[in-house]
Structure to design on (320 residues):
C-alpha cells in the first residue's frame, strides 16, 4: 500500500463526515422550523379581499353612466372622446365588481348594453346626470372612510368628475391602470406639506404657460382660470396650516416646467401641474385626521374640478 502523509488521510476522512454534518444540520432545521409540525399542514390561504362598503351601489351607478355614455357616442360630434369616457367607466365597473376592489384588480365583461337616446341633447343630459349622481355618491363614501379606502373612493370620484368634464371639453386618454401602484400613508403634516409644495409648483407652471401664450390665444383663458384656482387653493391651505399649527413650506425660486413649443406642450404642462396637485390632495386625504377629513375631501374635489380634462386619470390622484 502506498504511503500517504497523515494529514492527507485525515482530510479524506473528513469529506464524508462533512457531508453527514450538513445532512444533520438540514434535518435539525426542518425539525425546528415552526412552520412544519405534526401531520401535513393545509395549503396557505391568503387573506380575503376587502370589499369597501358601498361598492355594489357604486357599481350600479357606474353601469348606468356607462350605458348612456356608450350609447350617446353615436350622437356626439367627437365619438372617439365619448368612447374613451366609456372605457374609463368600464375599468371602474370591472374593479368595483372584481375579485379585489381595494387593490384595484379588474374583473372582466361589460356593465350591460349601451342605451339608445333619441337625440344628442338627451344623450348629453342623461350622461351628465348619471355622472353627477355617481360623483356625489363616491365623494360621500370618501368622506365617510379613512386612510387608503378614503383615497380609493376619491380616486374613483375624481375620475368621474373628469369624465363629466370630458362630455363637452377635453379628455385625454388616461394611462392604463397599474394595480401595483400604491399610495404611501404619511404623517398628516408631511402629506399636507407635499400638497402645499405641489400647489406652489402649479402656480409657477400656470403663470409660466400664461406668460408664454400670445395675446388672444384660445388657451389663455384656461391657463388664467387654473392659475387663479391654484392660487386660491394655496391661500386656503396656508390658512389650514395656521389653524393646525403646521409649518407651511415656502415657494422655491423656480420649478421645472416642460418645454413649451406649441399648444399640445402648453396643455401638457397645465395637465402636469393639475396632476401634481391631485396627487398631493389625495395623499393628504389618505393621511387626514377625523378633524381635517372634511377639508381634505373638499380640497380633493375642487382639484378634480380644476383639471380641465388635461390631467385625465383612471384613478384620480393615484400614481399609475
Amino acid at each position: 500500500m502506498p504511503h500517504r502523509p497523515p494529514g492527507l488521510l485525515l482530510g479524506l476522512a473528513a469529506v464524508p463526515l462533512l457531508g453527514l454534518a450538513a445532512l444533520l444540520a438540514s434535518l435539525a432545521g426542518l425539525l425546528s422550523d415552526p412552520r412544519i409540525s405534526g401531520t401535513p399542514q393545509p395549503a396557505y390561504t391568503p387573506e380575503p379581499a376587502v370589499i369597501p362598503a358601498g361598492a355594489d351601489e357604486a357599481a350600479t351607478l357606474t353601469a348606468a353612466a356607462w350605458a348612456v355614455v356608450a350609447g350617446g357616442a353615436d350622437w356626439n360630434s367627437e365619438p372617439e372622446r365619448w368612447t374613451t369616457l366609456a372605457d374609463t367607466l368600464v375599468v371602474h365597473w370591472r374593479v368595483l365588481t372584481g375579485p379585489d376592489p381595494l387593490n384595484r384588480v379588474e374583473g372582466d365583461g361589460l356593465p350591460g348594453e349601451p342605451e339608445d337616446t333619441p337625440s344628442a341633447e338627451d344623450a348629453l343630459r342623461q350622461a351628465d346626470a348619471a355622472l353627477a349622481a355617481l360623483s356625489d355618491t363616491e365623494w360621500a363614501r370618501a368622506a365617510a372612510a379613512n386612510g387608503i379606502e378614503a383615497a380609493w373612493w376619491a380616486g374613483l370620484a375624481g375620475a368621474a368628475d373628469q369624465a363629466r368634464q370630458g362630455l363637452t371639453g377635453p379628455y385625454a386618454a388616461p394611462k392604463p391602470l397599474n394595480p401595483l401602484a400604491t399610495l404611501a400613508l404619511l404623517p398628516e403634516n408631511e402629506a399636507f406639506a407635499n400638497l402645499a409644495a405641489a400647489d406652489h409648483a402649479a402656480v409657477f407652471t400656470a403663470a409660466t404657460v400664461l406668460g408664454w401664450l400670445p395675446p388672444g390665444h384660445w388657451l389663455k383663458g384656461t391657463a388664467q382660470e387654473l392659475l387663479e384656482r391654484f392660487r386660491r387653493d394655496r391661500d386656503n391651505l396656508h390658512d389650514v396650516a395656521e389653524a393646525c399649527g403646521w409649518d407651511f413650506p415656502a415657494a422655491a425660486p423656480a420649478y421645472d416646467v416642460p418645454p413649451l413649443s406649441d399648444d399640445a406642450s402648453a396643455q401638457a404642462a397645465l395637465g402636469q401641474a393639475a396632476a401634481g396637485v391631485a396627487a398631493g390632495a389625495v395623499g393628504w386625504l389618505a393621511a387626514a385626521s377625523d378633524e381635517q377629513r372634511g377639508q381634505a375631501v373638499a380640497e380633493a374635489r375642487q382639484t378634480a374640478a380644476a383639471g380641465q380634462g388635461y390631467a385625465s386619470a383612471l384613478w384620480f390622484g393615484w400614481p399609475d
Q: What stands out?
A: Residues 42 and 162 are 47 Å apart (CA to CA). Confidence is low (pLDDT under 50) at residues 1-33. The two ends are 76 Å apart (CA to CA). Residues 55-166 form one domain.
